[in-house]
Each structure stands twice: as C-alpha cells, then as structure tokens.
Amino acid sequence: MLKFLVDENLPRSLAARLRQAGFDALDVRDAGLAAASDATIAASAKREDRIIITANYRHFGNLLLFPLEQMPGIIVVKMPRSNMQAVLSRLVAFVFAAGEDRLLKRLNIVEPHRVRRRRAEGTD
Questions:
Q1: What is the pTM for the complete model shown?
Q2: Percent of the chain scored above 70 by pLDDT?
Q3: Is residue 89 part of a domain?
Q4: How many angstroms separate the CA atoms of 63 and 20, rounded?
C-alpha cells in the first residue's frame, strides 16, 4: 500500500481525502512535524517509507537537495490555489491513477494541465 506524508503547505484535508480513497496518508501537523525543516520532513518520509506531497517546489523539487535515490518519492503541486477543492480533486485523481510504478522513486510535478516526471537514476 502506498503511504504519503502531506506537507503543511497543503490543506490537512488532503490526507483525509487520500485515506478515503484507500491510501495510508498522514499530515505533517498530525505527525508532530508542524514547522519542521524540509530535511526533518524528508527524514521522516524516508524512515516511514512515505511519499511526500508538497507545494514546496523550490526545495523538494531540487534533486540535489533531495535525491530520488534516497527518497520514497516526491509529488510537488504547482497549481493556483484559488480553487483548493479543484487542486485536491486533481491530486487525489492523479495519485489514484498513477500507481506505484509512477510514484515510487519519482518526482512528479502536478500542474493544471500536465504532470512532469523525473525518476531516480537506475530505475525503469
């Protein structure tokens, strides 16, 4: 089963919606990681084998800071937040449709009309 760690720059309800869809999802605020550094969040994700979902492209989108070979996976949301319900729906639909092979050891950047993907070196 895929496991996710939702960063605090996204609504707490995202973790709840992912759980409703059948995934193991935890919000950083519920994990005692509110205001934690990105490195601390990444360490927790690695320890618990959770894919990070974040809107923090500047840091989590930087593969020099967070190499995919060392991470379970990263999903970065790059969408306008004017309609957060649409953003949440898009994310849940993306995660549900993507499956493990497109999420594990991958950086997925979810934008309004496309998803950009990078994978860890040495993965198919």
A1: 0.94
A2: 98
A3: yes
A4: 31
